[in-house]
Design a protein that fits this description.
CATH topology of the largest domain in chain B: MetI-like fold
Shape of chain A: globular
CATH superfamily of the largest domain in chain B: MetI-like
Radius of gyration of chain B: 24 Å
Order of helices and strands of chain A: HEEHHHHHHHHHHHH
Strand content of chain A: under 5%
CATH topology of the largest domain in chain A: MetI-like fold
Number of helices of chain A: 13
Number of helices of chain B: 11
Number of strands of chain A: 2
CATH class of the largest domain in chain B: Mainly Alpha
Largest sheet of chain A: 2 strands, antiparallel
Distance between the termini of chain A: 39 Å
Strand order of the largest sheet of chain A: 1-2
CATH architecture of the largest domain in chain A: Orthogonal Bundle
Structural class of chain A: mainly alpha
CATH class of the largest domain in chain A: Mainly Alpha
Oligomer: heterodimer
Largest sheet of chain B: none
Number of domains of chain B: 2
Helix content of chain A: over 70%
Distance between the termini of chain B: 53 Å
Shape of chain B: globular
Strand content of chain B: under 5%
Largest interface: A-B, 100 and 92 residues
C-alpha cells in the first residue's frame, strides 16, 4: 500500500474516532434516562419512609431492609423464587438439550424443519395467553386432563393451581412447556456448527451413542449452554407475567415470588419505599447470579 | 438382499421421524385445544366433551363486533408498532456506531446493555411509573412505548450489529469515493442490504411488545386505553365469563404473532442468539 493511501486511512480513522459517539448517543441517552436514572431513584426511595397521614418523607437509612430481612414471609417468597427459577431453567436446558439431539438430524429436511418451527409456537404466545390456557386446563369442569384422568378412573379432583402443595410446581411445568422449545433451538444451532466427522470417527472407533453424546456433543455445546442457563436463570428469577395472571401469587401465597410480591406492595398498597427495597434485593440477586456464572465460565476457560 | 445394518438404520430413521412428530404434536396439544375451542358453540358446555360437538364461527363474530375488544387490539398495535419503530431508529444508529467506529467507553456501553437486558421488569415498572407521574404522562401510551423500547433495545442493537459487521466497509468506502456522504452511504448502500434484518428485528420487537403485560397493567388505568393483554387478563380466573368468547379473543390475539413468527422463525436460529432469550 502506498503512502498516500495509508494517509487517507489514518485520516479516516481519526475522524471515525469522534463521530462514533454521535451514533450511540441516542441509545445512551434513552438508557440513561429510562434505566440508569430510575435505578438511582429506586435506591434513594428504598432509604426513605413516607408517612401516609402527614405526607412527611423521612430518611430512615437501611430500616426498610432490616424490616424485610426480619420478615419470615420474605424468606418463604425468596425460596419460592429460587425454586421456580432453578427448576424452570433446569427443565429448559436439560429437556432442551435432549430434544435438540433428537431434532438434530438430516433426514427429510422438510418434515424435521416444519416440526422445529411448529414446536416453537408456544414460545411466541403471550404469557397471558399461556396463563389463559393454563387456568382453563386447571379448571376441573373444563380441563381435558381432568377428563382423561376421570376416564381412567381417578376419583381425585384435578385442580393443581388451587392447591398450595401443587400450584408452584404446576407453574414451573407451564413455564418449562412454554420456553423449552426456544432453548432446544438455541442448542440445536450450536449442535449444527459441529463437524459431523467427529461423530463418524468416534463411531468407527466403536463409541456408543451415549458415549458420543457424553464426550463429543456435551463438550462442544458446554459454553453455549452455560450462557443460555445464565440468561435463563436471571430472566426467570425476575419473571412476572405468567405467575401474576395465572395465580396472583396464590393460593395462600404458595406461588408468590419476589416480582409479584414487589408488584403487590408497589401497585397494590402503594408502599413505594418498601417495594423499592425488595426490588433492589431482586436486582442484587439477578446481578449475583450473573456474576457467579460469569466467574464460573472464566474459571473453566 | 438382506443387510441387517441397512435395516437397522432404516428402523432408526423411522423411529426418529415418529418420535419427532409425536413430540411436536403432544407439545402443541394445548395450542390446538385453544384453536378448536375457539370454534366451540357457547351453548356446548365443556364438561360434555374435550372436543366440541360442532364447529361454529359465532365466537369470532362476537369478538369482531365487540367495539371494546377491537379497540384493545388497535391500542396494542399502536404501542407495539411504535416501540418497534423507536427501537429500529435508535438501535440501527448505535449498531452502526458500534460496528464502524472505535471509541473510548465502548466496553462500558456493552456492559450497560447487558445490565439493561437483565434488569428486572418490575423494578423498571416502579421507577418509570414514578417518572411518568412527575412528567404527567401517566395513563398514556408514552411510558408504555418507552418501557418496551428500552427493555428491547439491547437485543435490537446486538442483532443489528451482527448484520452491520457482516457487510464489508469497502462497499461504503466505494460509495464515498463516488461522492456519497456518510449518511448517503448508509441510506443508499446499507439500508437496502439490511432490509431483511431490519424487518426481522422490528417484527421481533413488535411481537415482544404485543405480548407484554407488566407495563401495560402498571401504566394504563382508563378502560378505553386497555391493551389486548390486559383486556384478556382481566377475564382470566373469572368463572362467570363467556369461556369460548375469551378463547376466541386469545386466539385472535395470537394470530398476528403467527404471521410474524412464520417470518422470523428462521432468523431466530440463525442470528438472534441469546439476545432473544425471554424466560
Amino acid at each position: 500500500m502506498n503512502t498516500a493511501l495509508t494517509n487517507i486511512h489514518h485520516h479516516k480513522k481519526r475522524k471515525r474516532l469522534n463521530s462514533g459517539y454521535f451514533f450511540v448517543a441516542p441509545a445512551v441517552i434513552l438508557i440513561t434516562l429510562l434505566a440508569i436514572y430510575p435505578t438511582f431513584r429506586v435506591i434513594s426511595l428504598s432509604l426513605f419512609d413516607l408517612n401516609r397521614r402527614t405526607g412527611e418523607n423521612s430518611f430512615i437509612g437501611i430500616q426498610n431492609y432490616v424490616k424485610i430481612f426480619g420478615d419470615p414471609l420474605f424468606f418463604k417468597i425468596f425460596k419460592q423464587t429460587l425454586y421456580f427459577s432453578f427448576f424452570s431453567s433446569l427443565g429448559h436446558i436439560v429437556l432442551g438439550f435432549f430434544l435438540s439431539v433428537l431434532f438434530n438430524t438430516d433426514l427429510n429436511r422438510k418434515f424435521i424443519g416444519a416440526c422445529r418451527a411448529l414446536i416453537l409456537l408456544p414460545w411466541a404466545l403471550s404469557p397471558i395467553i399461556v396463563a389463559m390456557i393454563a387456568q382453563l386446563w386447571a379448571y376441573p369442569l373444563i380441563s381435558p386432563i381432568a377428563k382423561i384422568l376421570a376416564a381412567l378412573g381417578s376419583q381425585a379432583e384435578f385442580a393443581p393451581l388451587s392447591r398450595p402443595s401443587t400450584a408452584l410446581f404446576s407453574l414451573t411445568i407451564i413455564n418449562i412447556w412454554q420456553f423449552t422449545p426456544f432453548y432446544m433451538l438455541m442448542i440445536l444451532a450450536g449442535l449444527q456448527s459441529m463437524d459431523p466427522e467427529l461423530h463418524n470417527a468416534a463411531k468407527v472407533d466403536g463409541a456408543s451413542t451415549l458415549q458420543r453424546i457424553r464426550y463429543i456433543t456435551i463438550p462442544h455445546v458446554r459454553d453455549l449452554v452455560l450462557t443460555l442457563s445464565l440468561f435463563d436463570l436471571v430472566t426467570t428469577t425476575a419473571y412476572f407475567d405468567l405467575i401474576w395472571v395465572t395465580t396472583q401469587g396464590g393460593p395462600v401465597r404458595s406461588t408468590e415470588v419476589l416480582s409479584t410480591y414487589i408488584y403487590r406492595i408497589a401497585f397494590g398498597t402503594m408502599n413505594w419505599n418498601s417495594a423499592s427495597a425488595i426490588g433492589l434485593v431482586l436486582l442484587v440477586l439477578c446481578i449475583g447470579i450473573s456474576a457467579a456464572v460469569l466467574v464460573l465460565m472464566q474459571r473453566e476457560e | 438382499m438382506y443387510t441387517p445394518g441397512k435395516n437397522r438404520k432404516k428402523f432408526l430413521n423411522w423411529l426418529t421421524y415418529i418420535s419427532v412428530g409425536v413430540i411436536t404434536f403432544l407439545w402443541l396439544l394445548p395450542v390446538l385445544w385453544m384453536v378448536i375451542s375457539a370454534f366451540r358453540d357457547p351453548g356446548d358446555p365443556f364438561y360434555a366433551g374435550i372436543l366440541p360437538s360442532k364447529l361454529t364461527m359465532v365466537n369470532f363474530q362476537k369478538v369482531l363486533s365487540n367495539e371494546t375488544t377491537m379497540r384493545s387490539f388497535r391500542n396494542s398495535a399502536v404501542v407495539a408498532a411504535s416501540a418497534a419503530v423507536l427501537d429500529i431508529l435508535i438501535a440501527s444508529l448505535a449498531a452502526y456506531g458500534f460496528s464502524r467506529f472505535q471509541f473510548a467507553g465502548k466496553k462500558l456501553f456493552q456492559i450497560l446493555l447487558l445490565v439493561v437486558r437483565l434488569f428486572p421488569g418490575v423494578l423498571l415498572a416502579i421507577s418509570l411509573f414514578r417518572v411518568a407521574g412527575y412528567l404527567k404522562v401517566y395513563d398514556s401510551f408514552i411510558p408504555l412505548i418507552l418501557a418496551n423500547g428500552v427493555l428491547n433495545l439491547p437485543f435490537a442493537i446486538w442483532n443489528l450489529r451482527t448484520t452491520f459487521e457482516a457487510i464489508p466497509i469497502e462497499l461504503e468506502e466505494a460509495a464515498w469515493l463516488d461522492g456519497e456522504t456518510r449518511v448517503g452511504g448508509i441510506l443508499h448502500i446499507l439500508v437496502p442490504l439490511m432490509a431483511p434484518s431490519l424487518a426481522a428485528t422490528a417484527a421481533f420487537i413488535f411481537l415482544l411488545s404485543w405480548n407484554e403485560y407488566l407495563f401495560a397493567v402498571s401504566f394504563i388505568r382508563s378502560p378505553e386505553k386497555q391493551l389486548i393483554t390486559t383486556a384478556i387478563a382481566a377475564n382470566i380466573g373469572q368463572y362467570n365469563v363467556d369461556f369460548t368468547g375469551l378463547i376466541a379473543t386469545g386466539m385472535l390475539a395470537s394470530l398476528p404473532l403467527l404471521v410474524l413468527f412464520l417470518y422470523i422463525q428462521r432468523y431466530i436460529v440463525s442470528g438472534l442468539g441469546v439476545g432473544a432469550v425471554r424466560g
